[in-house]
Amino acid sequence: SEAEKGAYPYYMLKEIDEQPGVMRNLIEHYIAEDGSIKIDEELLKRLNQAQRLYIVAAGTSYHAGLVGKELFERLTNIPTEVHVASEFAYNPPLLAEHPFFIFLTQSGETADSRQVLSQVNEWGYPSLTITNVANSTLSREATYTLLLYAGPEIAVASTKAYTGQIALEAILAKAMGELKNIDKAENFNVAKELTFVANGMQALVDGKSEIKEIAEDVLATTRNAFYIGRSIDYDIAQEAALKLKEVSYVQTEGFASGELKHGTIALIEKDTPVIAIITDEKTAKHTRSNTQEVLARGARVIYIASRQLAVAGDQIILPEVHPLLTPLLAIIPCQLLAYYTSLQRGYDVDKPRNLAKSVTVE
Ligand code: G6P
């Protein structure tokens, strides 16, 4: 079956490698030959009627929501908030008059998200669940569902569901924006751009041996590590840090690079690994100046940079893709760094301690 490991030593590596295929599946399922998007127009209209979108999720899906906020705000002009489900459940924000809720969930079973959806249903607001599991609880209980078609995700650390969710958010935002005649959405050729992403992902997974060397060199014995970035690169940094900490038990923080100087830079010692994500043109030079500050305190800095923003000496170079889709590429080396660091330390990367694939208790 699809869920078998085959020649792979671990599901996590298999699932990392499957990501170019996940992109192609989404194009096939959601975009017609003529470029039109195959999403129920009633759903698009109801989304566009919302004054504000509320994305609710947990864990890696929450991080996919952070990127989703960028996509929805830039392509649809609808203000978008992203909430951790367990926080929203007991302390909901003051809502807009016409809210629309988007639940992101690989499994469709996360109890914290289910609890929020029950509340949303009691309030009588419309909702969409984006999930990998058809007929899951969150799918059944939401007004609408969109499926990821990513195939079963077995490794506890989520990889292909994250990139699948972001790609589907991009397709959805494009369709919504186009319906509203927003230039940015009309000019965003999402099928073409996601094809570039799939090719770029393939190049990155093919280059995994270089990432393995960096993991062995920089992360094998460290006690802690930081991922830093600004804007969309901060979103990526948060997911990259979660990946590394959950499978390698290295204490890792994903930090807004400009905020380091307000306290956290005190943690930088000689050889502390700091991995800088640089894919956002507006903030690239600011993040680079933050890396100078940590270098001056002895940090070992690894740069993950988009080709057009890279400078000599950057260790990991990402193929160029649309500026809104860079998380789909930047996360690949970060997933591989986490995977190889876990193996190097002798852990079962598919079944990290204390964690469950789907958390069905609150
Ligand atoms: C668990 C898993 C994470 C996942 C989170 C949310 O904590 O270990 O990998 O991101 O649940 O799961 P969901 O299925 O709702 O995306």
TrEMBL record:
Query: This protein's superkingdom?
Result: Bacteria
Active site at 357
Predominant location: cytoplasm
> Is the Zinc keyword given for this protein?
no
Q: Which GO terms describe its biological process?
A: carbohydrate metabolic process; fructose 6-phosphate metabolic process; protein N-linked glycosylation; UDP-N-acetylglucosamine metabolic process
Give the protein's function: Catalyzes the first step in hexosamine metabolism, converting fructose-6P into glucosamine-6P using glutamine as a nitrogen source.
Task: Supply the name of the protein.
Answer: Glutamine--fructose-6-phosphate aminotransferase [isomerizing]
User: In which organism is this protein found?
Assistant: Liquorilactobacillus uvarum DSM 19971
Placed within the complete protein, the shown segment runs 244 to 605 of 605
